[in-house]
């Protein structure tokens, strides 16, 4: 039995929070290796200290998004009910620093049925928030769910 929220279970305006996860140097190093993105902003402490407004290395935006998908999955909200992840609009208004603990605040902002009566599409506002209540990811996800 799926424990996720089906299309009919999502309520427009309802906000749900996930548990948190701390982003580590190891996460960034492993993501750089997996993605091939060794940009100095993420991997070179001296470069980041001298040449960035943050004064230190930061996590990749794509890593932040990847962790967000994991937090959503781990929450159980989408377990066994997703037909497909249809798209995302991603913005990173603030950096994720090594040691930040992030969680999601997920709000259903739109729903629409599909031609198939067994499926529906939900648009979610996904805020990635750090331990200081700073939004570090402002995302909109479009997901097809079973009804």
TrEMBL record:
Pfam families: MaoC_dehydratas (PF01575). Gene3D superfamilies: Hotdog Thioesterase. InterPro entries: HotDog_dom_sf (IPR029069), MaoC-like_dom (IPR002539), MCH/BMMD (IPR052342). Residues 12-128 form the MaoC-like domain. PANTHER family: BETA-METHYLMALYL-COA DEHYDRATASE (PTHR43664:SF1), MONOAMINE OXIDASE-RELATED (PTHR43664). This is Acyl dehydratase. It comes from Frisingicoccus caecimuris.
């Amino acid at each position: 039995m799926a424990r996720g929220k089906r299309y009919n279970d999502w309520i427009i305006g309802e906000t749900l929070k996930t548990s948190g996860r701390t982003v580590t140097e190891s996460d960034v190093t492993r993501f750089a290796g997996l993605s091939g993105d060794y940009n100095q902003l993420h991997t070179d402490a001296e470069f980041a200290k001298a040449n960035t407004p943050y004064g230190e290395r930061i996590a990749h935006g794509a890593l932040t998004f990847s962790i967000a998908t994991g937090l959503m999955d781990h929450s159980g909200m989408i377990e066994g009910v997703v037909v497909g992840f249809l798209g995302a609009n991603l913005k990173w208004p603030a950096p994720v620093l090594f040691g930040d603990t992030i969680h999601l605040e997920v709000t259903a902002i739109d729903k629409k049925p599909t031609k198939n009566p067994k499926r529906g599409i939900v648009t979610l506002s996904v805020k990635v928030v750090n331990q200081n209540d700073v939004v570090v990811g402002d995302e909109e996800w479009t997901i097809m769910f079973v009804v």
